[in-house]
Structures are given as structure tokens and as C-alpha cells.
Fold this protein.
Amino acid sequence: MIVRGRRFKGGYRFKHFEGEPKDTLVEAGVPEEVVIPLKQGFGYEVPSVVKKGDTVKAGQIIGIDENSVSTPVQATINGTVKELKKIKYIDGTTNSVVIKSDGTTDWQTVDHEGEWSRLSEEALERRLYMSGVTSLGRSGIPTRYRSSVIGPGEVEHIVVQGLSTDVHNTSFSVLLDGEGVDRFLEGLKILKRVMPKAAVHVTFDKSRMSLVKLINEKLTGQDGINIYPLELKYPQELDEVIVPTILNARYPYGYLPAHMGVIVLNVQAVLRVYDAVAGNKPMIERVIALRGPGFTENQYATVRVGSPLQSMKGWIKDERSLRFVVDNLLTGFSCTDSSLPIGRSFNSIIAIPEQVSGGFLSFAAPGFTKDSYSRTFVSSFVGFKKKVNTNIHGEERPCIFCGYCEDVCPVGITPHLIYHNVERNKIEEKLAIYRIFNCIDCNLCTYVCPSKIQIASYIKEGKKKLRDSGLDESTVIFPNFHLKGIQKSIDTDKGTAK
């Protein structure tokens, strides 16, 4: 059933930016070497079960710990273990396995138990777990194998995220071409089988109504699956925004959607569920959107997990003058190191020019290619492609109380009021009253600030100082919510999950 009318207050529409990918899909091929982090996606880091010199096959498990909240890690190419080393990665540092390729392209299957529709629930969950797919999504995919903080029977809702609202908007059409829609719907059926109590909610860009109607027609007669055509407005793709928008429910800010019985996955995750269960395919590759002006061609590429960015040299203009950002230009992990390995939960890599110095009298320019929330640039009225780089294009100035940050805030707080208190080092209980812990770090307040104040950084600093003083999210969340899986989350954070 198509459900209309869902929306949220605040947010911002990014339009017409240079570097949006075209709906073309290419194969990146097998790299000479991969670096496989032993912590990818949701869950705790797993210990390696291989050593230097071992021969491995793509799909073979190289790291596993069935006693922790985690998911096994697989080799993604055929070859030899070159070394085990610690690397700096998105969540800090993690151990990794470096594999040198033997040049072959085949991979081994997850198991050989036959047609998925005839498998037991336990066998289905085992196949998902052993494939590596259960680490996808911010909360993981629940199974009886401790792949999430809650079990399959505790899931009340599955929200499938078919939106991209970031600066360089991406399309999921390339994933749903040809047989993609049928594979996607089979993936939904598998998830419904694993989590039978859950209602399924699928979101798509409302400008792609032909896709919405096609999926709705194919779903005829299937209860418990609704489709929501939504307007593209950042940060609607974040869990803390999409969940309350779709479910009309309050969100426990600072906690996972799983804590309220909700699992959020994107379209690619659902397709990987299908590949793992119906195709016995392990999680060895990822479709990555190449976004931003730093690529010679903005398109989609099928890449082996663990491939370093530098293995895609033919698509990168000049890595020495670029910054790479994972998934989201406003909130993603950023680096200038092209040896960063692709993770199995990556959706896109954004490459933008590094620019330290601003242009001469840039504030007086008409702004043909600049974005502006206040609509003061020419780009707001004509169709020129807008450009981005790492420069903030201006000096920080005093707050003018314009209220822009409050207008765009998707969770209804007053960012400039919190900023003024933190900037003056007034770290008091009233910051909690101002709902500082509701901040979801979307960084939109900083983006629209005409005074170039790093508002989001001040809010993050204020939250840290409050936590250091003994006041945290639990003070304002626990009395108002019945949360699930909290002890598992605490144990996982401490690295002691049992």
C-alpha cells in the first residue's frame, strides 16, 4: 500500500550540485591487494582465524567470534595472507588482514543446503550470519547468532531506506534495474520470514513514482508492507529522522533504532540479503557511488570489499589535492589518504578539492556556483551546477541571531542558544533542558550559518563535557522510553559482550 503525507519539520533540499552520479554501473575488477578490517559495520571487532602465509578463498571466513555481538568477516579475493596489521579506520583503530590476490575471480558459497524457501528459520539466520550480511545497518540484522542487540522476535518494524538526501544525491535506480526489483522484493520476503512480527516500511523519492507504483503492483496481496513516497530533504535518510517520520513515534536520541524495536536498512542491504540467502553469495563486494568533482566519471562501481581507494586510480583526478569522504559530505568520515579500504557498509565515496585559501572578495561575487540558504546567490535562481570544496569561504563572525539554524534543525532544538552557552563554558544542567542530547550531529546548523560559526562542533563539545560531568542521554531518555537490548549495547561498548 502507498502511504502519502509523511514529512518532518526543518531540513534542507540540496539541488543541482556538480558531481552527482549518473545511473551507470561498472565493474572495478579484482584489485592486486585488499585490506580487510576486522570490524566493519555493526558489531564488535572479531579476532582473526588466519595467519600470515595462509591461502584463502573469496568468501572464506577470516575472522569470527560467536560469543560477542558481531558478524563474521570474510576474505574478498582469492590469494595469500600477506600480513596482519592494525590500521586507522572509521571507528578509530582496528586490526586487519592484508591479502595479496592470485588474479582469479571466483568465490566460494556460504553453504549448500538448497532452496531458501525450504530452509528452517535457524538455517536462514545462519546463512545470513555466515555471509557477513548481518553487520549491515546501524543496528545490524538480528539473528539468534548475536548479530544485533535484539533478537528477531523483538523486531516490530523494518524501515527500508530508499532515499539519498545528501549534497550529491544518489539514485537507487541503478540497483533496481532489470531483475533488481524482483530481487529486492524477494529480499523483503526473506526479512519478513526472519523477523515475522515486523511490519515493513519502504521509502523512496517521490519524484520516482513509476518505481513506487511498479513495486506496489508487485506487492499486491502482501500484508504488512507499505511504501512511502517522500520528498528529498536532508537529513531524512538518518535513522533519527526517518524512523519518527514514518512511524509517528518519538525517537530515543542517542540510542539505536533497535532499542525501540526498529531495524533500518537501505536498498542495497536488502539486495545483499537476497544474494546471501537465495544465491549463497558471501559479502565480498559493494556497489559504491563515486560522487563529487574529484572523480573523472561520476557513476556507480561494483568494488571488492577491502579495495583501497588508490586501486581506482583511473577514476580519480588528482588524489594529492583531494579529500575523500565516506557516504555523507556533512557527517561522513573524511581523509586525504587514498589507501583507505572500502568497507562492506560503504554506500559512496565523495571526492572534493582541498582548498585552504578563499577567493579574493568572494563575498562580493554573484555566486553562480555557490549554495546559499538565504538565497542571496545567483545560483538560487538559475540552473548553474553548484560546486563544493573544503573551504568555508569566510571568516567566523559574531552570531546575528538570524534563526537559520533553528529553522533547519530536524529535531526541533535551538542550536544558537546551546552554542552561546557552550562558547561561554556554561556547561550546566540547563543544556539538557535545552535538549542538547536530541542533537543528531547532522551538521546542518553549521552549513547554513551566515556567520561561519562551527555550531555543530560546539554542541558536540557541550555533550561531551556534560557526559564527563556525569550527565548523559540516559538521564532524559530512560524515564520516557522502554528500551530493548540495552545491556547488550553496554557490554558491546565495553568490549565484553557475552
Q: What stands out?
A: The longest strand covers residues 79-89.
